[in-house]
Amino acid sequence: MEQEIQNELETITRLTNMVIDFFVNYSFQVIGAIIIFLLGFFVARWLAKIVLRLCERKNVDVTLSQFISSCVKLLVIAMVLVVCLGKFGISVAPFVAAIGAISLSLGLALQGVFSNYGAGFTIILTRPFVVGNTININNISGIVKEIRLAHTILNTEDGEIITIPNKHIVGEVITNSFEYKVVEASVGISYGCSPEKTITIINRCLIGFEEIPTTPAPQIGIEAFADSSINIAYRYWVPTERFFEVQYQVNLSVFNALQENNIEIPYPQREVRISQANT
Fold first, then answer.
1. pLDDT tens-digit series, residues 7-40
2. Rounded to an integer, what distance in angstroms lies between the CA atom of residue 173 and that of residue 175?
3. Which among 32, 60, 62, 224 is least buried, having the fewest CB atoms inside 10 angstroms?
4. What is the pLDDT of residues 238-258, one digit of tens each?
């Protein structure tokens, strides 16, 4: 029992001596490394803020500005860490090689994720759309709420949030209607009614809505001569956030106005002839 206690005391003594020798031999290096790291950290934050302000002054996109600022901060901190390791006489070459091998493995495993980041960087640089625009990609439509490096977030009038990976945006056909969206509708009138009068009535209805802009102006005209009616088509722009709401209100307003002005909306008609053979 006494022998075990003595062995433990000797072990503790050796460890204590090692710690004391380390601090005696490397105390200045440790203090210097800590000071260098703290100074480097504060310098990295300071440079990152300067870069962010400079980008904002040059009207660079917010997401890109933050990305550049973060890269500058991480680069400075990495350089400071290399200097700190050098204070202890540690060679950074093996670490660099290990980081390179790990990066290659991660790159192969996460190539889909990295492709999203690359596509996001392209979107931020080329700016095919910005926050607040209305875009349509592969039959997916919405208002751009946020552009991130990995994905883009859209909002719909129903409050839905659509998240699109950026790799599915770059290289696709993008329709950007900015803050508005076009409504296309038509109504059939009887051949006995005046198309000019109908067009005037519909135009008056559209002008009565404050949400419908005058530039570009609504378009109204004869779309087709159908079997039972003359189809009057009308197109107008509305804010995307109120697309369906305004469309339904306009349709009701057009219907009531046509009824008040005795413009007939005919039912589909078919003429049937019965031929009776002589017996």
1. 776 777 777 777 666 666 666 677 777 888 888 8
2. 7
3. 224
4. 999 999 999 999 999 999 999
Q: Which of 260, 250, 258, 141 is nearest to 185 (CA)?
A: 250
The whole-model pTM stands at 0.61
Distance of alpha carbon 189 from alpha carbon 198, whole angstroms:
8
According to DSSP, the residues that pair with 188 across neighbouring strands are 231
Alpha carbon 166 to chain centroid, angstroms: 8
pLDDT, tens digit (0-9, with 9 covering 90-100), for 108-126: 555 666 788 888 888 888 8
The pair of structure tokens assigned to 104 is 């290659």
Tokens 């950026």 label which residue? Answer: 166
Residue 96 CA to residue 79 CA, distance in Å, equals 12
Lookup result for tokens 């008040």: 260
* CB-count burial class (<10 Å; 0-12, 13-18, 19+) for 202: buried
From 1.10.287.1260, 3.40.30.20, 3.30.200.20, 3.30.450.20, which CATH number describes the 2-109 domain? 1.10.287.1260
CA dist 227 and 269 (Å) reads 8
